[in-house]
Structure formats: C-alpha cells, structure tokens
Amino acid sequence: MPSLAPPEGEVEKPPLRTPGIRRALIQGFLGSVLVLFGSFGVGWLANGSDINRWSWVIPLRTEPWGVAVSTVALTLGCWVMFHAWLLLGRALREADRQSWQPGSLRVVNIATAVWAVPHLFCVPIFSRDVFAYLNQGRLVLAGGDPYQEGVSQLENWFHFGTDPMWAQSETPYGPMFLWIEAAVMWVTNNHVDTAVLLFRLACVAGVVLIMVYVPKLAEHFGVHGGRAQWLACANPLFIISFISSAHNDALMMGFALAGIYAATTANRHWSRGVVATLLVTVSVGMKIISLVLLPFVALLWAASRGDGETGWWRKFKYWFLTAGIAGVVLLAVGWVNGYGIRWLMVLAGTGDTGKSFWSPLGIVDDTLTNILHAFGQDAEWTLDTLRLIGRLASVLIVVALMFLGRDRHLMQRMTWAFAAIVVLSPIIHPWYLLWLLPLFAAIGIRNDWQTKWVIFTVGFFICYGAQDQLSVWEFLNLDEDMLRLSLATSVVCMTVIALLPSGRWVWTRGWLASPLLLRVPGRSQTYALHTYDGIHLETLDPNRGESPPAQTAEQLHTGELPVLGDQRRVPK
Questions:
Q1: How far apart are CA 302 and CA 276, in angstroms?
Q2: Which residue, of 58, 80, 265, 299, has the fewest CB within 10 Å?
Q3: Which regions span the lipid bilayer (predicted)?
C-alpha cells in the first residue's frame, strides 16, 4: 500500500510521454480495438439486430474462418489489454514497490478512458444480460409485473435476444432500474441496437461515479488514489464487464460508493448523511444486494458526527434514521410503480439456480457430491443445503460486523460484510469481483500477495469469459472448437506475458514481506526462502541463530503505512 507522499525531493508528475506509459496507452487501445473487431464475429447479437445484416459482419459470423479469426482477435485483445494494465502499473512504480508519484491518478484516468472508448461500440461480450434489460423494459411498458412474470409473456420476446434460461424468471433487478429499462425502450421505440447503446451509456454513468469516488475514498483513508484507481478501474475485467457487457452493476456500485463517501464526510454538514442514505437507497433500487451496505453507512454517518467511539444510543438512532429514510423512499417507489414492496420479497429469493465451479460452496458441493456418489448415496440435496448454510452464515457475519468492532475499522467491516454475501453464495459471476474490488482498493490492498491475488483473479476471469461466452451459430458445430481455440490463445498469451520483463515482476517478486523458514528433517540447518525482492533461498547460520526480521510489505518499501486495515491518514 504505497504512501501518499512522494520520496523527498521528488515532485515531478509522471508525463504521458514516458515510454512505459505511452506504450501502455497504445497497447491497451490496440487491445480494445481487437476486442471490438472480435465482438462482431462472436459477440452476442439479438435476432432483431440490424448488425446481423451488415455485409462485412455476415462472414465473420457464418463462415468457419470468420468465427475462428474473431475468436482469436477477441481473446488476444483481452490479453493485450491485460498486459497494458500491468505495463501501466510497472511504469507507475508498482513493480518496484515504490511510492507512486503525484499525478499518477491523472495518468490512470486517461489510460482507462482511452482503453474504454472502443468498448462503447462493441457487440455485447462476456454476458448477454443486456438483452434481458430490453425485454424487461418492454414488459414494464406493456403493463406487466416483472416481479411476477417472465419476459416469455411478451410477443416475439426471443427476437430481442434474451437468454431462454431467464425467459420465465422474475427480474432480479430493483424497481428504479426497471424505470431505466422502460425509458430506454420507450425512447428507442424498441430498436435493439440503439437500446443496447443507451444501456451502455447508462452504465458508463455508473463507471464515471466509480472512478470519481474510488480515489476520493482511498485518499480519505490514507491510500494512494492513483493506485486504488489502477487496481479497481483500469483493469480489463472492469472495462469489459461494465462497458462492453453493459452490466447494471456499474450503476449499483457507482451510487453505493458515492453514498459511502458522503457518509464518511458527513461531519462537514448534517445533510450529507441524508444524501448518503438516499444515494445508497438508489443503489438498492438498481440491485438489492447493496442493501447490506445501508447499516454500515448509518454507522459511518454516526461516527463522523461524534468524537471518539460512537455510543449505542447514537448507533441505534442513526440506524433507525437511515432505515426510515430508505424505507420511505422505497415505499414511495413501490407506490409509484404499483409493485408495492413485494419486489423485496421476490428479490430476496432470487439466485437459487446453479453454482459456479470456482465458488467455495461450489467446490464443497462438487466434493461432497462425488463422495456421496462413490458410496451410492443420493446427492441432490447438497446444493440446496449448502446454499441455506451459506445464507445463514453470511447473515450472521453481517450482523456480527455491524455490532462488533471499533469505529476506525468501519470501512473494513462494511467491506468484509459485503464480501461475505458474495463469497458464501454458490454462484459468483466474474463481475461480482467488481463489487468488492473498489471497496478493498479504497481501504488498501498491499503490494504483496494481495495485489497478486487481484491480478491473477482478473486474469482467470478474462480467460474464462473469453472462451465461455462466445456466440457461435449452432449450424456451424464449432462451439467446442472455438472454446479450445480461445483457451489455447489464452495459454499462449499468459505464457508470453509471464516471460516478458513488463509482466515477469508479477510472479517473481513481492510475494511475502517476511521470508519463509524451512528446515530439512534430520538436518540442523535452516533455510530462508525470500519471495519479496526476488525468489531465492538463503542458508541461515545455525551458530549465530540468525532470523530474518519480520516486516510488513510497507516497511520494506515505504516505511510509512501499516498493514491493510488501519485507516489512519499519512501525516502531511
């Protein structure tokens, strides 16, 4: 977690002309252009899209060579963006684990904007959820209730591209987002391509909110805003999921972060706490999952208005105040749209289908199912049972974090409460990482294994999304071939990036601040495995009893900030 303060005597801002920064900007843009091109061949298109009839797009979608070229271009483009992200971090001193320079935030913002521009015009990739928005908007305009009926009730719903898996399901989105869906379909007169563009622009508004408030929150808690922005917003998964895929999660997190910042600075004026509550309530109106943030926003508001630890009377006062404001708003919304509050009950029961093989509960379920099948036992009950256990455990964790802990750790408590809801669900979609990453980046992600966890997780979901979400016509019978082609492209790209100097630092340096002590059975010597400045083994002198000093990552390269979790500011 690099310091906010630059090294003594160094005040120059990193210019865009710096070779590493310039290369990163160009590479990231070229990668985005490759993704843009590949999306026209294997991105998701509704049957009613005019793009299907463009002469140069037809062979990309109907000829085997066109599909193959598009698959490689899309996958390669994602990894070129990934490499540009690492290259930018290296140019801004992440690889050397030094303090980031003043002006780094400006560089990261410019890079993110440059890389994002081509994605405004992509055919949707990595997800087809945006087409569900189209039909849900049509359902609202038709006077239907998306919380009681699926879009299959609509005439010609398949023409608008919604995944048949969700055709008979209730909407999982909040009532305020339904207004956006209806407005988009009304303005565009049900034109598919124009509607997708407008939904994407709405999500860009959420992206802008996130990019405004991530560095503000980070600097409020003593974390370098530029580095937090680089981790949370410049990574390719963020750009693809929130712009190319047009996920409404961008709006949810944008309003949530704006509300959290207003609550942390409510000491400036009492009304900021009211604004914070309203902003988070709007976030809930996009997706109900952000409801878990509301009690912690109340605690942040209460803490900002008092001196010292907040007493229980003040905590309950602000909990009731926040709940009252949010309740009045949501009741008013329910009255206006005619859905009442039953949408809360419906949304509380959504997400009961399937599992992700990488989720902790998914891993446990697979293991338990295999064991039961090996003994000839029924295993159909395991997933439902684990889902119930996960929900109960997450509720208990959230309640515990609400009541236990000091005020100076409120941001951490809120972040881990949100993380518990995500991690203890059987389904963890790739963009769920983007719910948590802005919050963790704001409270500080250390420049050691914590940063590597972020990088490797982004890389994993890039690899998975590029090969799992390819739209290939069934008559070509190329689904499995394109999956393997995309996976092979990812493996080659990952290998090349790992060997390049601009990417080698990710796995060769900076793992653990303190060396690992190893002892070979039967021998008296102790070995120290160093993984921070470089991976190497050192033999310790048994006569002198040498022991490597235990230091945090920050002490090794900044000496100013403590480990993840302390919200103290850096002295000016």
A1: 12
A2: 58
A3: 24-45, 65-86, 107-126, 195-215, 236-262, 274-304, 316-336, 388-404, 416-441, 453-473, 485-507
